[in-house]
Design brief:
The complex is a heterodimer. Chain A is mainly beta. Helix content of chain A is 0%, strand content 51%. In chain A, strands 2, 5, 6, 10, 11 and 12 form a six-stranded mixed β-sheet that branches. A four-stranded antiparallel β-sheet of chain A has the order 3-9-8-7, with no helix packed on it. A two-stranded antiparallel sheet of chain A has the order 1-4. Chain B has no helices and eleven strands. By secondary structure, chain B is mostly beta strands. Classes of the chains: A mainly beta, B mainly beta.
């Protein structure tokens, strides 16, 4: 079974609008971390935001916020006021405490922002 | 700006060549990683070094040889590669262990094997 599921292969949004990128996860660990990364066509993998499994409040970083619903095992990324520079691939990822605690990625969502 | 630096940015090599990818971080992290990423796919873990010791090798072919000379440097030595090894190679670093430690990536090295 996939540990991270991103069901939207591609998303389109107009500049200045908000957009939500979906992510669901599966783990039996009680302690885990959820991450979102942005990857432009240049290739760099840019860390955006982190949510810990024990965090009671949703994480926010500037225009990025993470809508964390633990019971539903979802960790959606919300980008407010989209900009043209937000066009990129977005990956949801999870790091569990068990084993060597490596990062498991979803398949990604390609976001295109139009003027 | 990323604090994980990778060189070279682009590399074209023949199947008989020997080359190396280099990675450096100055965040005091004690875990370093190599990932391979093919087009339109998520990154795939290749190797993990923790406290300068190889802790994970994800069944990577021996034509890829990692090296961690010290806590700040990570190399990936390449020899007798195949065209299917052409990909983006990402280096990353973090503090080891805890799920709460963010893994930071470099800009990547685009490798083409001809």
């Amino acid at each position: 079974a996939q540990k991270i599921t991103q069901t939207q292969p591609g998303m389109f949004v107009q500049e200045k609008e908000a957009v939500t990128l979906d992510c669901t996860y599966d783990t039996s660990d009680q302690s885990y971390g959820l991450f979102w990364y942005k990857q432009p066509s240049s290739g760099e993998m840019i860390f955006l935001i982190y949510q810990g499994s024990y965090d009671e409040q949703n994480a926010t970083e500037g225009r990025y916020s993470l809508n964390f619903q633990k019971a539903r095992k979802s960790a959606n990324l919300v980008i407010s006021a989209s900009q043209l520079g937000d066009s990129a691939m977005y990956f949801c990822a999870m790091r569990e405490n068990s084993g060597y605690s490596t990062l498991t990625f979803g398949k990604g969502t390609m976001l295109l922002v139009s003027p | 700006d990323t604090e994980v630096t990778q060189t070279p940015k682009h590399l074209v090599m023949g199947m008989t060549n020997k080359k190396s990818l280099k990675c450096e971080q100055h965040m005091g992290h004690r875990a370093m990683y190599w990932y391979k990423q093919k087009a339109k796919k998520p990154p795939e873990l290749m190797f993990v070094y923790s406290y300068e010791k190889l802790s994970i090798n994800e069944s990577v072919p021996s034509r890829f040889s990692p090296e961690c000379p010290n806590s700040s440097l990570l190399n990936l030595h390449l020899h007798a590669l195949q065209p299917e090894d052409s990909a983006l190679y990402l280096c990353a670093s973090s503090q080891p262990g805890s799920s709460g430690n963010t893994i930071y990536f470099g800009e990547g090295s685009w490798l083409t094997v001809v």
